[in-house]
Write a structure and sequence with these properties.
The protein is an alpha/beta fold. The protein has helices at 22-32, 51-54, 60-78, 92-102, 117-121, 125-132, 158-167, 178-202, 210-237, 243-269; strands spanning 9-15, 37-44, 83-88, 107-113, 137-142, 148-153. The protein has 2 domains: 9-156, 3-Layer(aba) Sandwich (Rossmann fold), CATH 3.40.50; 167-269, no CATH class. The chain contains 10 helices and 6 strands. Strands 3-2-1-4-5-6 form a 6-stranded mixed beta sheet. Helix 1 (22-32) links the parallel strand 1 (9-15) and strand 2. The chain is elongated. The chain starts with 8 loop residues before the first strand and ends with a helix.
Length: 270
Amino acid sequence: MMVQEMAQRSVIAIVTPAFGSAESVAALAREVDGTSTEVRLVAPAVEMNPLHHTFGDIDEPRVEARERLEKALAAARATGLGARGEVGDSDPVQAAQDALLESPADEILIFAHADDCKEWYEGGLWKHAEESLAPPLKMVVVDGSQHVVKTEEAGPGHMEAILAAEMGSNPYVPGVSRADLAVMTFGIVGTIIVVILAAAATAGGTATGWRAIAIGIAIAVALVNMSNVVGTLLMDSVRYRGGFAKMFRNLALVGTPLAILVNLAILIFA
């Protein structure tokens, strides 16, 4: 009888310029600890100079990140880690969220320089990471001499506790928070109202002018809310709580009542 192989773990490491020293690579290796683990290195395309965009050097941050990634991969593989990598968003938290969308992970490590800790803590970046990233989260701090001086770990179950508080008891749509369910319900009901108003506006007349606009609005709001429902279900399945999730939600919350008001005005005045 064949013994079923245990599922492979997956670790995402956000490799800023702080990663690459022997101690930082050893810190990553300790997280693997000899187990069968997929290691994914993500190098944020950080802009070192805000004038790059002004002068059209929009590719330079990605070129620098690609070079950093290649060095990080070489350092990791030299210690026997089977790592693969990719260039990510300039925001390290967003880069981690995008990597999670591609494939879930069991743990996320963020390598940061000691000089950047003020931005992480006082700037709220670490709190944002805790609230946005579901897997266990650690930050490895490296000083100017490339020594690991600190390892910060998010409280156990931090994101799970947030999600549990949001979801409460929801046996019908597991994994979807009450807030998300309320927005989806609001969008569906709002879409029905917009469609009814468009139908009433075009009743007994040709679909031209403002009446045609009412139909177009109904189609548009239906697409927005359908995207919100599908997007929310897909993103919650990987516990993604980032920019795209908020974009769908905001479009539904703003677009639906606006569409109702416009189609109501067309029905009354057109």
